Amino acid sequence: MTPGTAKYPQLTAEEFEQLARQAPETVTLELVKGKLKVKPVPDGDHGEIIMWLQEQCMQHKPGFGLYGDQGLVVENYRAGRARPDGSLAQRGYFAGRGEWSDPAGVLMTVEVTSYDSDTDRRDREEKATGYAAAGIPVYLLVDRDRGALLVHSEPRNGEYRQRTTYAYGDTVTLPDPVGITLDTEKLKEFAS
User: Fold this and answer.
1) Which of 65, 85, 102, 109 places its Cα 20 to 30 Å from the Cα of 51?
2) Record: fold of 43-190
3) Mean pLDDT across the chain, nearest whole number?
């Protein structure tokens, strides 16, 4: 393997955490598959989509919260660090866990695509692999470029075995253990 991969990361987890603490407020840093990733600060529509999802989770999954930008350890040997746009977990799960938490209690991660050149590889490929490797049961990708939601489920051997795509406006039932049904008509308001 070459430098910058999960086996030979560009940085150690400790080096990354130190760098991430010093990053400017205009970006979010992540360490995914051994590579340093820079994520731009979200725009207004991005924030509205996350707010809409938070409301859906609160209404349909009492006792759970969709936590924004909670740091998760997402790869073997603690080599990966990601800040999903949302992590669905029981309320109180992250209390006392620090900046980078074990994802064992996370039922679902959510990413909303950004309009930058790296979103294809980062959100559609690398994050899916990282979340599956961490055993997170559901990964929901809100793909603004395609006006679609991609539901990943059944993680096994670092990959999600099920991937289903829905258009904005479809009724989307997220698989167990999430078990929430979303009416996604509202997302059409944020289509590009």
Assistant:
1) 102
2) tt1808, chain A (3.90.1570)
3) 82
3-class secondary structure per residue, 147-177: CEEEEEEEEECCEEEEEEEEECCCEEECCCC
Cα 21 to Cα 42: distance, rounded to the nearest angstrom: 19
- Could you read off the pLDDT of 147-186 as tens digits, one per residue? 999 999 999 988 999 999 999 999 999 999 999 999 999 9
pLDDT in tens, 20-42: 666 655 556 666 666 666 655 55
Distance CA 143, CA 37 (A): 19
**Helix, strand, coil % over all residues of the chain, rounded to 5:** 30, 35, 40
Which structure tokens are listed for 144?
């603004």
Do the beta carbons of residue 128 and residue 119 sit within 8 Å? no
* Residues 190 and 144 sit within 8 Å (Cβ to Cβ): yes
- Report whether 55 contacts 64 (CB < 8 A): no
